[in-house]
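TL;DR need structure tokens for one chain.
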Amino acid sequence: MSIVTGVPWLLAHKSMLKVNQPQKVSLYNQDYVIWKDRQGNVSALPNACPHLGAMLSEGWCEEDRETHASRVVCPYHALKFDREGCTVLPGSQKKTLPQLNPPELIIQDDFIWSYGGYEPQMPIPEVLNELITNYDFIGYTADTSAEIDLRTMLMNMHDYNHQSGAHFNPMKIKEVHLEQFIDEGYKSHAVFHNVTAPKSLQDKLRNPNLFLMPEVVTTHLENYFPNLVILHTDSPFGKAAQCQLFVPETDTRTRIFVLLFAQAKFPFLKNVGKKAFLDVAKLVIDQDIDILLKIYPHTAPKIRLNNEVGMDWIKRNFDNFPTLAPSNLSSKSPVPSLTKS
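>> reply
TL;DR here they are.
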């Protein structure tokens, strides 16, 4: 099984939607058009116009001058659809019954969630709402769709050994040492140390981000099956939480994007390094997708490496969902203190 249903998927952060500009999102083999009006209200409809199937996401929005609510306009015949899926046919002054069935959206602060029409099997994780109370939202990046199924994408994310291969350049990671794995059912923590190769001054000048890269990089992943991984970092300048979100667009295609939150210890450092952090996050996602598209499918593994407990966690939860299997993959010490603000 490569898709699980009854799971809340984060379709977007409101900052990812431009006012009165429709865009396409996909979930469970269904395309939707989603848009935001001037007041911040978010609407979504199936993306195929009920007249002749034109993509509504390729159209535009028309705003009501009084209420500032907006309707999405079909690019083919300019039919205008409100958030309920109703329109007014040419030559008629009467609004039709709903012609499109809007997906159910759950809006929490700036987070736009959906169960994709399935009966909920697990709640929306509260961690993002907790983050925004203590962290500043920095931005989003790496919004990418790839012909990779969800299970394969998550197996890669929890393959801690791949840091020294797929991400050797430019971060020069040469060794990975898993220190902790805490199994809490559909939630887990992984803490590992990445040992980096020596970096010359020339290397650092070519890639200034290496000036910030210590000899040993401690990585703490806070994992929520199957839709969210939070990479926590702590430094003398403050804390950051890089949230990687996964959305199953089809059985074989997955969308991934990153939301970045930070807590600067000194106010004047709030925006320092913002672009660099976002660029590094995008590079990592690009490298992951690149290597996954270069793997021969259906190759039976004959070798098992150390540190594959995270992959075991993904396999178990996919194989047992929605039944929660016993949590028996924990190892070593308890959850690290850097999970706290």
